[in-house]
Write a structure and sequence with these properties.
Length: 58
Amino acid sequence: MKAIPTSAQLFTCFVLSYWATKMYLPIHIIRIDERTGNIFFLAGEETIILIERNGQWR
């Protein structure tokens, strides 16, 4: 079964994409982990963000 992002994850991903590009950081990959449902977000050289199913990120 394919993991589908929640609406909270989509909103957070959009906001983080906006801020990353505003700081001129290239977004290299956005990928959903099918085991956990978390979104992996890599911007710039070393900015790694995990977006949980409830939209919280770290």
